[in-house]
């Protein structure tokens, strides 16, 4: 199974022990080994942040060009069977719960499309009765060719379910492990099927076997020490890329933001930490998409776009129905960059990056409608 | 610069031996200016990036399509089936049966799949397409693709986006020696000198994208590539003097015949 089996204490120790010489060596290397990776995540590398950023920015530009892919999340459901201490959809919270019907999904999707988006990410909690494979199949059929790329950030389906979704035209699957530290994982996932760490990890593998073109991974930053999460993400990403060589790896950097549960991060991640993590992961995974959401404030996002990020959301609403009714309530997390997508696109252009709304075509997937 | 003999692909003459791509540019406007500065006559566009649904597409509308032949490419296709489907879509939407065939199942280095590329090429030729396949620098595959009816072969110099120049030089040399269709060196050309080197090696044309798109000044870099390609094409036509390992006086062995003349 392509999941990292790490001695996290040893990883933390090697990160802590990295010297300025180790960092200098890692910054000179084209391909990073485990020692280099630890060095780049170390406090010693924090002192060389500018050098790290220069390398990351140059590598990103060479591999991806002067472009930024834009996508929008569409929240389908706030129902969830899991109790997770950090999440606004956690099962015990009294928030308005709803799962959008097909007409509602279509209306939301049209509102998103009207803003220019052609890549759509469908998001939902784990709700086995409401968010099912047939439901997602019906959505793909209903949306037809209005979007060029459809991804899901929900899942918890067996491989066969994922296969059907690939068949239905979904090209991306995102499943955050949330934390790669099993003890912390068990602390924050209080109840529900998500409590099982290995089960969660296995979903991404199932998605890889099912043939998703993009496999998204991420750690919810703030749950555990970020260097350990970053190290684990790099190894997880590499293992997935080896096992599922036709799939592209995408890594997200969700930092914990205020949500209905009132969770305060146990291991806060500073802006400088976030920059170091993004740049180190770029060097560790040169071809991975690095993804930034609207959890981060506008001023910081503007600075991060040139450093290693290749894909970002804009104008996001994080509650089901939020695009048509901004006061829908029941958000999964609070959005900090609330600029309209067009404003984000202008910001990108001002920074010499072309906003890319379309970087896939439904014609690639058999279910993407009839070809002329 | 003096004109060189035009390159002919599938009956269509091209004065410029520099083809350009449209990805990775900071804006559609810069891309269009770079294409103009390159003096190119053939521009490749990824179907996955453009909106062929009839809506106004930024990339396509930025280009003066009276100046360029459009070469849609199947970038993103993972197998023959997908490539053929995308090619059909491009033909219907763009009104051209020319297609740059790219089948790159592995998203990291975007190396072409030889098996699926050949399969797709055979199908597309049967469907009446003019096929320009992106391929690894494999001389046998080049022959197979030419035999299948492809209009050119487009071997890579180095993996896409690496800017490392003619890493496949020895293989390219064999492909060029054996060629029955034009050879367009595609991918990996990082500097104008690399492009010139490909042309001097005997390639009929080069395709450049990343090196121009991500240059500090893409328009100036396009102009630089143009100069290099034109110079090399002219040099090839002029007839190179050939190389020698040592300096040599004009006729050291037979000079005596003229002594005292």
Fraction of residues in helix of chain B:
25-40%
Helix content of chain A: 40-55%
* Regions with little confidence, pLDDT below 50 for 5+ residues of chain A: 368-372
| Global geometry of chain A | globular
Structural category of chain A: alpha/beta
Mean pLDDT of chain B: 90
Helix and strand run of chain A: HHHHHEEHEHEHEHEHEHEHEHEHE
Oligomeric state, counting identical vs distinct chains: heterodimer
The largest beta-sheet of chain A arranges its strands as: 1-3-4-5-7-8-9-10
Question: Topology of this structure?
Answer:
The complex is a heterodimer of chains A (372) and B (261).
Chain A: H1 8-17, H2 20-28, H3 34-40, H4 43-46, H5 49-64, E1 67-77, E2 83-84, H6 102-114, E3 119-124, H7 133-143, E4 149-153, H8 159-168, E5 172-174, H9 182-188, E6 189-191, H10 197-210, E7 214-218, H11 226-243, E8 248-252, H12 271-284, E9 289-292, H13 298-304, E10 311-313, H14 341-350, E11 354-356
Parallel strand pairs in A: 1-3, 1-10, 1-11, 3-4, 4-5, 5-7, 7-8, 8-9, 9-10
Antiparallel strand pairs in A: 2-6
Helix pairs in contact in A: 1-3, 2-3, 5-12, 6-7, 7-8, 8-10, 11-12
Chain B: E1 7-9, E2 12-14, E3 18-21, H1 28-38, E4 42-46, H2 58-62, E5 69-73, H3 80-94, E6 98-101, H4 114-126, E7 130-135, H5 139-147, E8 154-155, H6 169-178, E9 184-186, H7 192-201, E10 205-208, H8 210-213, H9 218-238
Parallel strand pairs in B: 3-4, 3-10, 4-5, 6-7, 7-8, 9-10
Antiparallel strand pairs in B: 1-2
């Amino acid at each position: 199974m392509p999941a990292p089996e790490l001695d996290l204490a040893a990883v933390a120790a090697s990160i802590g022990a990295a010297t300025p010489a180790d960092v200098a060596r890692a910054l000179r290397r084209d391909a990073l080994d485990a020692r280099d990776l630890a060095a780049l995540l170390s406090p010693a590398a924090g002192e060389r942040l500018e050098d790290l950023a220069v390398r990351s920015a140059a590598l990103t530009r060479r591999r991806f060009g002067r472009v930024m892919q834009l996508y929008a999340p569409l929240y389908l459901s706030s129902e969830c069977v899991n109790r997770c201490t950090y999440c606004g959809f956690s099962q015990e919270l009294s928030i308005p719960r709803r799962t959008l019907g097909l007409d509602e999904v279509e209306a939301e999707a049209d509102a998103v499309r009207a803003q220019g988006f052609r890549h759509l990410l469908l998001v939902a909690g784990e709700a086995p009765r409401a968010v099912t494979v047939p439901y997602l199949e019906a959505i793909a059929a209903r949306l037809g060719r209005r979007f060029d790329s459809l991804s899901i950030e929900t899942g918890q389906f067996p491989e066969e379910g994922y296969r059907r979704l690939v068949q239905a035209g979904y090209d991306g699957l995102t499943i955050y492990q949330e934390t790669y530290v099993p003890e912390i994982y068990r602390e924050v996932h209080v109840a529900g099927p998500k409590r099982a760490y290995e089960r969660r990890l296995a979903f991404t593998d199932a998605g890889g076997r099912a043939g998703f073109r993009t496999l998204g991974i991420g750690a919810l930053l703030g749950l555990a020490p970020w260097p350990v999460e970053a190290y684990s993400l790099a190894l997880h990403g590499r293992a997935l890329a080896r096992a599922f060589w036709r799939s592209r790896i995408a890594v997200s950097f969700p930092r914990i933001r205020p949500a209905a549960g009132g969770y305060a991060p146990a291991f806060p991640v500073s802006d400088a930490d976030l920059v170091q993590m993004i740049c180190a992961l770029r060097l560790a995974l040169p071809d991975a998409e690095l993804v930034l959401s609207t959890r981060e404030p506008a001023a910081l996002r503007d600075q991060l776009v040139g450093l290693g990020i290749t894909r970002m959301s804009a104008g996001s609403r994080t509650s089901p129905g939020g695009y048509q009714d901004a006061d829908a309530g029941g958000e999964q997390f609070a959005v900090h960059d609330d600029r309209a997508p067009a404003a984000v696109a202008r910001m990108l252009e001002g920074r010499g990056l072309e906003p890319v709304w379309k970087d896939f075509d439904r014609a690639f997937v058999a279910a993407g409608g009839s070809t002329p | 610069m003096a004109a060189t003999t035009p390159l002919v692909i599938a009956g269509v003459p091209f004065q410029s031996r520099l083809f350009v791509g449209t990805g990775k540019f900071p804006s559609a406007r810069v891309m269009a200016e770079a294409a103009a500065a390159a003096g190119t006559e053939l521009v490749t566009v990824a179907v996955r990036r453009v909106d062929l649904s009839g809506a106004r597409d930024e990339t396509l509308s930025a280009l003066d399509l009276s100046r360029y032949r459009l070469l849609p490419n199947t970038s993103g296709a993972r197998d023959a089936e997908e490539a053929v489907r995308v090619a059909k879509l491009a033909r219907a939407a763009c009104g051209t049966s020319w297609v740059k065939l790219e089948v790159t199942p592995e998203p990291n280095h975007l190396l072409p799949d030889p098996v699926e590329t050949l399969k797709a090429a055979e199908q597309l030729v049967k469907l009446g397409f003019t096929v320009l396949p992106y391929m690894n620098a494999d001389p046998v595959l080049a022959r197979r693709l030419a035999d299948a009816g492809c209009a050119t072969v487009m071997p890579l110099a180095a993996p896409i986006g690496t800017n490392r120049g003619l890493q496949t030089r020895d293989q390219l040399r064999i492909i060029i020696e054996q060629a029955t269709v034009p050879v367009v060196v595609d991918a990996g050309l990082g500097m104008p000198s690399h492009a010139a080197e490909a042309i001097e090696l005997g390639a009929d044309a080069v395709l450049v994208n990343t090196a121009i798109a991500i240059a500090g000044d893409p328009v100036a870099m396009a102009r630089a590539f143009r100069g290099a390609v034109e110079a090399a094409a002219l040099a090839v036509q002029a007839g190179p003097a050939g190389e020698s390992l040592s300096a040599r006086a004009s006729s050291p062995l037979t000079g005596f015949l003229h002594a005292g003349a």
